[in-house]
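Exercise 3.2. Students should predict the tertiary structure of the chain below and write it as structure tokens, then compare their answer with the key that follows.

Predict this chain's 3D structure.
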Amino acid sequence: MPGQHDIPADLPALEAGYLAPGTADCPTFREDTEWRAIVDGVDYFAQLCGLFDRAGPGDSVLITGLNLQPDMDLTGAEPGDDDYEALADRLARLADDGVDVRVLLTAAVYSGSVPGVAIRPFRANAFAALELRRRPSLRGRVLLDWSGSGIGCHHQKIVLVHVGGTLTAFVGGLDLSANRFDAEPHDRLSIGDERWGWHDGAVRLRGPAAGRVWEVYRARWAEAATLPPRSFYRPPARWEPMNPEPFAPPLPPSPPTPARSAPGTAVQVLRSLRPWKIDHFGTLYRRHWTVLPRHGVQEVFHGLSAAIRGARHYIYLEDQYFFEVPGGRRAFRLYGLLRNAAARGVRIVLVCSGRRDPADAGINTFRRRVTGDVQRGVIDQLAPADRGNVIMHRIEGLTVHTKVMLVDDVYAAVGSANFFSRSMRGTDTELSAALVTTGDQVRDLRVRLWAEHLRTELTDELRPRLEDLDLALGMWRPEWLPPQAPAGTWREPGYPAGFDPAERVLVPVGPWPEPSPRPLRRAARGARRGAARVAESGRRAGRRLSS
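Answer key:
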């Protein structure tokens, strides 16, 4: 297996090895942007609260997401608590104080406007918009964005806060919903009588890259404000305009974003979107974007592809799915690149949910089996000796909503894009923030995530063991432990020193050591059915002859 000594130690070599080449449309921000990872909603919402509390006249708060819950409280308070304040009231209070507040909510042309169609969360967003617009100061500042692919949605999750001359951009997977208010050990939530948790993450950007996120939002606002008029059905018998005019004035260009000291780092802000602003009801109703690139972009795909190709030691992925859904395309699948990395000795760790998002249809718990797309696209096509370089784990009782990729302790990407080709192609519009660094940011994020999944306190005694990458990788597969490590390492408390898990929630789910038996089983069933038909035909012929 390639070793850590093979990884470049200088920033230009890291950029060349792990980042897609920068362009005028997708620049690389070198040593001028602060990139900070946030793990789980409690920390995320606390940071938003701190910034919102400081906002005043002339400042800005810009929000977009897949869904937004107007009655959630960012501190976790419940209705009836003394300190409870609904998000809608907080945003209205900011707007009353002279803050430029704007909210873009994802909509869909079918579920947002057709009576009787209640596909969540799009239909819910229509009613969230109504609730927000009940506050006079928010009217014209909340838009339902139904542009884009007919089977896709706007999946970007962005919060921009310009306070006191400093612009802060949050990019990630977190929506402003109460069930995102969670943190380790993820025992705050439940589904019925069963424990449930929500694991998520984001990145905080300050500096020129935050200005690029502002421009992404500015373009989204301009596109939503120029959509044709549409209405949605409001029971019992009323139609509401999706975006009643007048709107707030066009969003101005990004405020100044002075460089932040970030030695040894390079940051990219990556987008995914399809070419069409309106792509419903067939090609007769297609319209190009007004200000967004008319050809579409797949920057997330090219960015992740470059990092996977450059991997030399490990690739760590957290994602909700690891299987394909409609709207993708084979050309934008990343499984082949993972297979190639495993074939050259790179360790591949995939971490995903033990429980579905309750908003998704189907049975809430997952089978303890590697997903079929990973099995067929990665495992089955590897030589037997290389299949042990891939492992998938599920986390019991937890929805893993993070979209995180870490590579070799030098590259990290955090955003809204799921690993499937639907996000890579841009059927769902996405935004991710990628980093390469000669410093410790990626290693520290890995250590924090892995300690959380081990459910062990990150003490001063344990930290150096998790920082030791060769030792830490053994937590995922015993065969990956260094030869000198005791056999019980990461399986027994005290091995290594400081390892003291409160519970065990990581469940390995594959891969099968041999290619999937499913095609062989199908062939065997077909042969049995064919033999049965032949036998039955012979019996019928015998009966005819005897009669």
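Discussion points: The first strand starts at residue 29 and ends at 30. The chain has 13 helices and 25 strands.
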